Amino acid sequence: MALLALRLQSGARRVAVGVVLAVVLGAALLTKAYFLVFLPPLGLLLFYRATRKAVAIALAGSLVIAGWWYWQTWTTTGSLTGNIAMVAPTFTDVMRAAPKFSVLRAADFAWMSFIWMANWSFIFLRSWMYRAMAVLGVLALAGVVRLLWKRDAAVALLSALLASFALGIAYFALDIFAAGGYPAAFGWYLCCLVATFAILFVAGLRAIAPAKVKPVAVPLLVIAFATLELFGTHILMLPYYTGFISHFPNGGLPAFHLSRLTKGGWRSMLERLAFFKPAWLTASVLGVLWMLFLLATLALVAVSIYLAFAERQRDRIE
């Protein structure tokens, strides 16, 4: 959807792109109500003469495709989404809760649950890992602001999509806070915009980095996220789900020691993972899938380093 919006903005066959965007946006709105937050950024394109007709087609078409569901949900629940967290608290409840709402706590939880979290087990990485990624995020944000100052239209559109989605998550967190007292902003919803996030992350870091360091931005992020994934999966999630580690009385979760994989430990872990799975999903199959996952992760790191090296060589030639 973000790609279609960029094509709309670039002027490539705008009417045809508007029709395709109408179908994609309508299908998205029927799939998840949080795609409503994409409407304001797209609506801003109505103010530009070049994109007005195509955007009008996209918005009208998506309304025809999905509008009936939202009308029925609104008349039934009094909410556009029908989500219990947004139906339970009244508007008055939300307004009363707003002054007590901690934006920093909500943002912190959203950041952690977006960067890495083990599903509904709510297993988190070490706090310093999230803080390290937050430092990179702040640097990237500074770079994005610099690009916006230079009036980069593509960055402005992608930033608007991301900002609108963040505001939607913030409002959802406020509703949850009004109903339950905790500002739970679930950052994993942002995964639908992970490509947009990655583009802005890289573009922001490259915008503020010295010329000689620009090629390092991509491998730096790839290595950082790969490290988080490998640590979280092998040191926390898999050992926890297979009973090799468990929570302390205070709620803390110890790190798994890889030495326990010797003397049959790895085989035992795979066999426990195979419990209550289809007959074909044996420990051996899980072992092969794990190896493919590991190879794919390492291949991403290798490719990112190769491309960075190639870019640096090309810059030297030029």
Briefly characterize the structure.
The chain is mainly α and 318 residues long.
H-E string: HHHHHHHHHHHHH
The number of distinct helices, counting runs of at least 4 residues, comes to: 13
Largest sheet: none
Q: End-to-end span in angstroms?
A: 36 Å
Residues in helices, as a percent range: 55-70%
Overall shape: it is globular
Secondary structure tally: strands = 0
> Which class best fits the helix and strand makeup?
mainly alpha
Oligomeric status: single chain
Work out the radius of gyration.
23 Å
Provide the domain count. Answer: 3
Strand content: under 5%
Mean pLDDT over the full residue set = 89
Q: Would you give an account of this structure?
A:
The chain has about 325 residues and is mainly α. It folds into three domains: about 1-80; about 90-210, no CATH class; about 215-318, no CATH class. Helix content is about 70%, strand content about 0%. The chain contains 13 helices and no strands. The longest helix has about 35 residues, at about 285-315. The chain is globular. The two termini are about 35 Å apart. About 25% of the residues are buried. The mean pLDDT is about 90.
